[in-house]
Amino acid sequence: MMVDMKYHVASLVAVFLALGVGILVGSAVASDGALVEQQERMIDRLEADFARLKADRDALGARLAALEQALSASLSFEDMVARGLIEGELAGMRVAAVACGDAMPPEGMERIGRCVEEAGGELVRVVRIRRRLAPASADEAREVAASLDVSLAGAEAVERAVAEALAAYAALGEAGPRLDTLVSLGYAAPVVEAPAAAGGDAPGPDGRADAVVVMGGSLDPAFGAQDAGIPIVRVLKRLRVDVVGVEPWDVKVSHMGDYKREGITTVDCVDLPLGRLSLVYALAGQRGHFGIKGTAQSLVPDILRRR
């Protein structure tokens, strides 16, 4: 009975202590409303910060729209000025182009073609490289080697044969079975064909291009200059054809450093008016590295030297 009474007394004491603590805490909070006021101030600050962020966002949106309008006007003006500066610079010149990978969209290639024509030249051939030139496996190497009539079926020998066939088509207009094979295997797709190439005849003296534009850069970090552009450039150099390496300004992976090490002229922003201006003067014979990236030596060629 004494044990039960002790537990009963202890329970009553615990209850009263809990009530006392609750009353004490409640009175401390309610006495001056400090906690409530602190929460209200925090809510007011958050609402003010949100309103300020919204105003900043609206101001930035308006600023961005104004800058885009100014940029569009500036690019249109540059394009207009560039057309006057390139007129006649490529009179009678035959130009071919090789687009390696996915960086240059069709509309970009069309703008380059119009630029060459406005300068008095002719874009006689364009071929787009769709994949790496090296075979992906030993079985593919043997298949490609057999299709191209290559005696050695090693990866390097096949890559060299593929590069030689594509470069010969671009520079010399040599179409025929080898090009057909590479197209059927998914290596390349002719976009513009010269009359001789379209008929499958021997290229002859009129089939040769005076210069070849190799369009590089990549939107795929795994596709490098060594996968297509550099092998093509090296064959073109052996064919003693002038080569200019170009790419759009906003590629994820730039190939300009690799092309620069090959000793060819480069333009790193060919999708901009100043880049197309630089391309024309590079095709006309000015050497250097032009554009807006770290590999460039100057923004544009020395135009006054040509005029």
Uncertain spans: 194-206
Distance between the termini: 120 Å
The DSSP helix count reads 10
- Rg value: 34 Å
Which range best describes the helical content: under 10%, 10-25%, 25-40%, 40-55%, 55-70% or over 70%?
Answer: 40-55%
Describe the structure.
With 307 residues, the chain is an alpha/beta fold. The protein folds into two domains: 2-64; 91-306. 54% of the residues lie in helices and 11% in strands. It contains ten helices and seven strands. It has helices at residues 2-32, 34-86, 106-118, 138-148, 155-172, 177-184, 195-199, 229-238, 256-261, 273-283, and strands spanning 94-100, 122-129, 188-192, 211-215, 242-246, 265-267, 289-290. Strand 4 (211-215), helix 8 (229-238) and strand 5 (242-246) form a beta-alpha-beta unit. Helix 2 runs parallel beside helix 10 (273-283), helix 4 packs across helix 5 and helix 5 (155-172) crosses helix 8 (229-238).
